[in-house]
Specification:
Order of helices and strands: HHHEEHEHEEEEHHHEHEEH
CATH topology of the largest domain: D-Maltodextrin-Binding Protein, domain 2
Mean pLDDT: 87
Helix content: 25-40%
CATH class of the largest domain: Alpha Beta
Low-confidence stretches: none
Shape: elongated
Structural class: alpha+beta
Strand order of the largest sheet: 4-3-5-10-6
Radius of gyration: 24 Å
Largest sheet: 5 strands, mixed
CATH superfamily of the largest domain: Periplasmic binding protein-like II
Number of strands: 10
Strand content: 15-25%
Distance between the termini: 48 Å
CATH architecture of the largest domain: 3-Layer(aba) Sandwich
């Protein structure tokens, strides 16, 4: 439908907040409106569109099918408007908020962010880390580094680097069994998180698809970086991305007993909402990755690690 000057644009803003929070009360708190005012704006929009946008239940609300179709488009529209205004006012540089997995942040990003800041002295950087997959409509993050296949609806993705893995352990731990010479020797030692599917993939590739991993205790340490720290301390064998731990290998804190590495189809990607693609700080971050990573934007089949 063509928007007239009488179309209730304020009601769209209210709808976007309610859809994001799934709460009239929280949307009102964000926008500085009473719950009654929020309800009125949503009702006005529903009457204008002649569609019910929310299912109102006693203690919660849900988006209808029509509301679920509309919400991401409205969010994208407001993102585009905000980016345009920021660019015009020259404040788009400001602060770049990066969300990343802990492992990538600590073993690659933290070591190279100095290059980005030297090239872009007017852009401050805030780095947030967690294993969670963030919802850009509910966070301040401008971009994220994710592990996956590169397919996330509504998000632009750029290949960053391949994600391959292999067992690694401290040399002192290996010495306790006279060294690790065969893949099955690893099972004489404590396996860190034997429930991780990477282990089964690696043992299968090593010719032992029936390796008895089920008999090992199931510890989960939350991130690859924590598992690596446990391995360095001699608490077990971890399955890690070897490129991230070459310094530890060089310093004699870890060994990679086998050349065999495997992949599960998930790799590292830079992602952000399509609407933010041309903001100055995102363009600057893409240029930084292009400068520092030969694999950036080449795709997982390029052969570049």
């Amino acid at each position: 439908m063509k928007l007239s000057r009488q179309f209730p644009l304020n009601a769209l803003r209210v709808f976007e907040a309610v859809a994001r929070h799934l709460s009239f009360t929280k949307a009102g708190e964000e926008l500085g409106l009473t719950q009654t005012a929020v309800s009125y704006q949503v009702k006005l929009l529903e009457e204008t569109l002649k569609e019910t946008l929310f299912l109102r239940q006693p203690r919660k609300i849900l988006l209808t099918e029509a509301g679920a179709r509309l919400a991401p488009k409205v969010t994208e529209g407001f993102d585009i408007l905000a980016s345009a205004v920021n660019e015009m006012q020259g404040v788009a540089e400001g602060t770049l908020i990066i969300h990343s997995t802990h492992t990538f942040a600590s073993h690659w990003l933290a070591r190279h962010l100095g290059i980005f800041q030297l090239d872009n002295p007017t852009i401050a950087v805030r780095l947030e880390t967690s294993q969670a997959v963030i919802d850009f409509s509910k966070t301040e993050a401008d971009l994220a580094i994710r592990v996956g296949t590169g397919e996330w609806p509504g998000l632009k993705s750029h290949f960053v680097m391949r994600n391959h893995f292999t067992p690694m352990l401290s040399p002192k731990l290996a010495d306790t069994i006279g060294g690790v010479h065969d893949p099955l020797d690893l099972l004489k030692l404590k396996i860190i998180d034997p429930g991780d599917p990477w282990w089964r993939l690696w043992f299968t590739a090593a010719g032992h698809p029936d390796a008895p991993l089920e008999s090992a205790s199931r510890n989960r340490l939350g991130s690859q970086a924590v598992e690596a720290a446990a391995a360095i301390a001699g608490h077990g064998v971890a399955i890690l991305r070897p490129d991230f731990y070459q310094d530890d290998v060089a310093m004699g804190r870890l060994i990679q007993p086998f050349d065999l590495t495997c992949e599960d189809g998930s790799h590292y990607w830079l992602v952000y909402p399509e609407a933010r693609r041309q903001t100055a700080k995102l363009r600057a971050f893409r240029a930084f990755l292009q400068k520092t990573l030969p694999s950036f934007d080449k795709g997982p089949d390029s052969g570049i690690m």
